[in-house]
Amino acid sequence: MFIDLDCRFDILRLSKMLKHRINGQSNGSIKKIDQEHMDFDLWNNDTKKNPTYDEELYSLCMRRFLFIRCYDSFQFLATLKTLHYRIQKEQELHGISVHILMIDGIGAFHWIDRASTFMPLGATNRKTPSLQTVSETVVQEIRKLLLLHPMLVIATKATIFGDRYSMTETKRNLGKLDASNSRSISSTSLQLPYREYMPSVWQTFVTHRVLVGASGLEFSL
């Protein structure tokens, strides 16, 4: 199950890449081609004309990928609160259990919520939930979900490089991460070159962190 909070995931491209891979497997091998040729094939390949294309396999694979898009914290919280029932429905209809929950952009609404904390909602005087309240609810709902549906939870977020780190220090730390085994580096011996902005309730909930080099993305689970 993929929850898109950044609203950047291209489901159409995923579909075309899957068809491209199925075509390659059905032809006996998956050819290694450069990105430019792959993009051209993805957008111009008509799978209906390919007699070896397996539509049933494609449909089976797509049914195993559940996609949800949220545009603000309220939709995200509502999704988490109803996720148990949605997973149950998928199990009843297709017999599919969710084993991985991926949340793309856990900090996507952080700055919006922070800026609107003291702003009235619509014509009422009711204030929007605080960052702490939203994060606490997110953690609580995920904990409840894991009790009912044990699964791997992966969350990504963009990183913010702090001013206290120079570019030289940043490259040196990233080089250490690339060149060394992560198990041999303790949290006290290596300071990661980014500033944490998520609330403490979320930070304590995360069990593992992986900093993905130059892309500036942190994968947390």
Automatic annotation (TrEMBL):
GO annotation terms (biological process): double-strand break repair via homologous recombination
Domain RecA family profile residue range list: 1-160
GO cellular component: Rad51B-Rad51C-Rad51D-XRCC2 complex; replication fork
Molecular function, one GO term: ATP binding
InterPro entries with a match to the protein in the record: RecA_ATP-bd, XRCC2
Domain of life: Eukaryota
Protein name: RecA family profile 1 domain-containing protein
Lineage, uppermost ranks: Eukaryota, Viridiplantae, Streptophyta, Embryophyta, Tracheophyta
